Amino acid sequence: MKSFEKPLYDFSIRTFSKLADFSKGSHPRLEKLVEGRKDLFEKLELFRLDFKKPVAWFHVASLGEFEQAKPVISEFKKRFLEYGIVVSFFSPSGFDHVSEKPQEDIDFITYLPFDTPGNAKRFLEILNPQVAFFVKYDLWANHILEARNRNIPLFLFSASMRDEQIYFKSYGGFFRKILFSFDHIFCQNERTQNLLENAGYRETSITGDTRYDRVHTIALHPRSFPELKSNFGNKPSIVAGSVWDEDMGLIIPMINQDDHYNWIIAPHDIDAEQISAWQQQIKKTTLKYSDLPTEKEVVVIFIDNIGMLSSLYQFAETAYVGGAFGKGLHNILEPLAYGIPVIYGTLKKVGKFPEADVSKSFGCSFQVNDFRELQKTIQSLSERNAYLEAQDGARKLLEENLGSSKKIMDKVVSILDKK
Asked: Virtual CA dihedral for 240, 138, 356, 219, nearest 10 degrees?
């Protein structure tokens, strides 16, 4: 069976790329996935024609993984000033957001081509990186195996793995080969390290989640929003970040029944019709951010653009983070970095979000299943002692988890020095 794993994998990638191309006209996201990769190699060649420095390649799935990569990229540049940084994305949402504006320390941003053997070979021939980093989980077999064949040092960091993944199945020999291609895997937690070591891979260390370093940096220097401060600066507010309709099913009744808080709501997807529908269900005065400034007293402001959320938590007494009821919990570490308690919905796959259990153990995050639990949790946090305990837990959580990026780069340097 194992001899068929690689051909089956290659066949599935080719089939997916052809189906995506065929279906792109009927699906905007598929269209971006395909169209964004047009002329990828030509753009990469033009970059390498002018850029003669050695290159460190970082691959991320999307925006969340890019945020995890940022502190490691910064630490890498401190140690290797002579290197350029190239970041590849799989997801259009991540690529589009990041490529819209210049990124500190990054020399080139590209899509990763679909993971066929030919694409992987051509991509690495042109890019010719001296070292490669993958973030968390987005592991593309042919690109990793091709890099290994070229003796490019390979590292995976912020790895968070679960026993149901194919790498740890009896039939997953080909996929375990991907893991064994890395020179070192930096694990978020002991569970991941144990899974890897039980599978026979020993080059591991527990260095934590680099997102702690990233959110700490953002919280120290958040963006300024005077138009929000004039409305909410001196009033207790709840910021609801990356919310879906399932989250608003809890939040809207809370807004309608509670007179203590103002609300800043940042939807996961900016959809004018959806925002309008939510506004109609709310009995308090609402406004979209794009309609600021205003003279009237507003209770709820809907954020109708992207890129603000990580800095919005500076206005929050408490945060609600969305996604748990649906596709997956958004980043709860962003608000925790401001030293505030965080509420979120009931997780479907707890193992995918280890930060939820960790923060609960510190007493700074709270899981709710419905409106009544949300109401009860917010009421309990309105008591001064309970709130101060949650704040203290958030501060301790951050303090104990900072420094991951430095630990990673210390080890990377020691490995590279031996090559």
From this structure: -50
CA–CA dist 210, 220 (Å, integer): 16
Q: What is the pLDDT of residues 132-184, one digit of tens each?
A: 999 998 999 999 999 999 999 999 999 999 888 888 887 778 889 999 999 99
pLDDT tens-digit readout, 195-235 = 999 999 999 999 999 999 999 999 999 999 988 887 776 67
Report the C-alpha gap between 239 and 23 in whole angstroms. 38
**Architecture of the domain spanning 217-401:** 3-Layer(aba) Sandwich (3.40)
**Residues 274 and 247: beta-carbon distance below 8 Å:** no
- The per-residue DSSP string of 93-162 comes to HHHHHHHTS--TT--EEEEPPP--HHHHHHHHHHH--SEEEEETT---HHHHHHHHHTT--EEEEEE---
Give Cβ neighbours of residue 193 (< 8 Å, ≥ 6 apart). Answer: 187, 204, 205, 206
- Stretches in the chain below the pLDDT threshold 50: 1-2
**Residue 137 structure tokens:** 């989980």
Helix 40-50 vs helix 117-127: angle between axes, to the nearest 10 degrees? 20
CA 356 – CA 293 distance, rounded (Å): 36
153 vs 164: CA distance, rounded Å: 28
Q: Locate the domains of the chain by residue range.
A: 2-208, 217-401
Cα dihedral across residues 215, 220, 225, 230: positive or negative: positive
- At the topology level, CATH places domain 2-208 in Rossmann fold (3.40.50)
CA-CA distance, 374 to 274, in Å (whole number)? 22
Cβ-contact 333, 210 below 8 angstroms: no
The residue with tokens 């290797």 is: 80
Which two structure tokens, joined as six digits, stand for 135?
């973030």
